[in-house]
TrEMBL record:
SUPFAM superfamilies: Aromatic compound dioxygenase
Record-given protein name: Intradiol ring-cleavage dioxygenases domain-containing protein
Family as reported in the entry's similarity comment: Belongs to the intradiol ring-cleavage dioxygenase family.
Domain Intradiol ring-cleavage dioxygenases: 105-280
Domain Catechol dioxygenase N-terminal: 24-92
UniProt KW Metal-binding keyword: yes
Biological source species: Exophiala oligosperma
Cofactor field: Fe(3+)
Alphabetically ordered keywords of this record: Dioxygenase, Iron, Metal-binding, Oxidoreductase
Length: 283
């Protein structure tokens, strides 16, 4: 028979009630709920001081690794399914018909180069499945084209590395910003994405190793789409042929985001084509 422990029954309430009356109502509610769940978790699992110090060091390690080129904290949340869950909650609650969101991931960078429609985001890579991608950005309610939508794209090279991970790639390779005109259309050349492992040299990789989980992400291209008067969409498109497409180490795949790269003929710049329309909801 397991031993029953008696802890101070008033401690958690004292922590929650320490919040002052001038605090933001939403913040007060969230922190109170978080505090109660964390305290209950510690009591339920009999978390020791040693357990606590190891957890804090994992978070601190994540912070030390993070910079403007890699967000290890975000990756740690990803492998726990937290960002994917929050994306699902946001999408279900909004119920606005927008393209489904999914994780930002750790390798988004600000100030990607602005490019013209029809440009290529690929530089210095000759061996790869070159793809012509096109489509429209549409209003989720009316179906009308969205003008001045900025599409931010990023993906890995065929070696599974983003440019900031790979000294052999030029800065900002496989990234670009494209702005739609009045017809809402976009087009550019990219690479058919490849499957890859998340980095294993940090706390996220260590946690997966300790949990006996794989580190693979299915082939995907990242997108962030913003337009005046509309909510920003952060999402990914996943290659249906990838064996990890429904076994993603960060649980980011949604059925509506799984796509088919089709053969493209009579285009010397690309062997594949992908057409996809993004839908934005008004802010």
């Amino acid at each position: 028979m397991s031993r029953q422990y008696q802890f101070d029954p008033n401690f958690t309430n004292a922590v929650v009630n320490a919040t002052g009356p001038k605090s933001d109502a939403r913040l007060r509610k969230i922190v109170a709920s978080l505090t109660r769940h964390l305290h209950d978790f510690c009591r339920e699992n009999l978390i020791t001081a040693d357990d606590f110090r190891k957890a804090i060091e994992l978070l601190n390690w994540s912070g030390r690794m993070s910079d403007d080129k890699r967000n290890e904290g975000n990756l740690l949340a990803n492998v726990l399914g937290l960002e994917a869950l929050v994306d699902e909650i946001s999408h279900v609650v909004a119920d606005d018909g927008a393209t489904e969101p999914t994780v930002l991931g750790p390798f988004w960078r600000e100030n990607a180069p602005r490019r013209s429609m029809g440009d290529s985001i690929v530089s210095g890579i000759e061996a790869g499945d070159f793809t012509f991608m096109s489509g429209r950005v549409l209003d989720a309610s009316t179906g009308e084209p969205v003008e001045k939508a900025v599409i931010d794209i990023w993906e890995t090279a065929p070696n599974g590395k983003y440019e900031q991970q790979d000294p052999y790639q030029v800065d900002m390779n496989l990234r670009g910003l494209f702005t739609t005109g009045k017809d809402g259309t976009y087009s550019f050349y990219c690479l058919r994405p490849t499957t890859y492992s998340i980095p294993v040299d940090g706390p996220a990789g260590l946690l997966l190793q300790l949990l006996d989980r794989h580190t693979m992400r299915p082939a995907h291209i990242h997108f962030m789409i913003q337009a005046p008067g509309y909510k920003t969409i952060i999402t990914e498109l996943f290659d249906r042929r990838d064996k990890h497409v429904f076994d993603d180490s960060v649980f980011a795949v949604r059925n509506s985001l799984v796509v088919d790269f089709l053969p493209l003929e009579d285009n010397p710049k690309a062997q594949f084509q992908l057409q996809y329309d993004f839908k934005l909801a008004k802010a």
